[in-house]
Amino acid sequence: MLIAGSALARSDDRDQPMDIRADHSRMTQGSGKEGGVTVLTGNVKVTRGSMKASAAQATLYQHPDKAKDAKGNDVSNQVQRVVLTGKPARLQEISDDGDKVDSSAERIEYNADTSVAVLDGNVSVIREGRSEFRGQHMVYNTQTGAMESGNTDGSAPVHIVIQPKAKPAAKPAAAPAKSAADGGAG
């Protein structure tokens, strides 16, 4: 969903450069089996293609050297996990079908290896013109679209609004035929 891409974000966003801005950054280079960690604080803004994120703090965890994904591809030093925090942290995306998706939560964590995003604290996900979700917790698999929220004891209720399908625009009425009295051929 976040930096590495999602089912909601444009599929070509992952191929775009990542532009990161913040008031302060602290980077720890990875070595051997340890991946690098970058902590960004103050007015954090991340843009990658159509995806825009903002937060008070962002932590980016990278894969270590010689890391491979499940398909055997080299993912050395690529971002493996992103954690955004704020009051709230925000994420805006445009889907391949043109829908605008706005998400916010106090904490948004995305794991590129599992394609799972976890949103916690005052969660709001709005897919413009389609649906709204509000609650305290959401787990979302960006590959399959599976979503789980709330809990079974009712202590973290959810609120979902699904918009009706838009009706097609009415066709304009045909102009009436002119009669001979109106100067038409009739």
What does the model show?
The protein has about 190 residues and is mainly beta. The protein is about 0% helix and about 50% strand. The chain has no helices and 10 strands. Strands 1, 2, 3, 4, 5, 6, 7, 8, 9 and 10 form a 10-stranded antiparallel sheet that branches. Strand 8 and strand 9 form a beta hairpin. The termini are far apart.
What is Rg?
A: 23 Å
Strand content: over 45%
One letter per element, helices H and strands E, the order comes to EEEEEEEEEE
What is the makeup of the main sheet? 10 strands, antiparallel
State the helical fraction: under 10%
Mean pLDDT: 81
Give the total of beta strands. 10
- In whole angstroms, how far apart are the ends? 63 Å
Molecular shape = globular
Overall structural class, as computed from helix and strand content, comes to mainly beta
- Report the total helices: 0
Low-confidence stretches: 1-7
Give the SSE map.
Layout: E1 19-21, E2 24-28, E3 37-48, E4 51-62, E5 79-94, E6 100-111, E7 116-127, E8 131-141, E9 147-149, E10 159-162
Antiparallel strand pairs: 1-3, 2-3, 3-4, 4-5, 5-6, 6-7, 7-8, 8-9, 8-10
Keywords:
single chain; disordered N terminus; globular; 10 strands; 0% helix; ten-stranded antiparallel beta sheet
Would you kindly provide a brief summary of this structure?
The chain has no helices and ten strands. The chain is mainly beta.
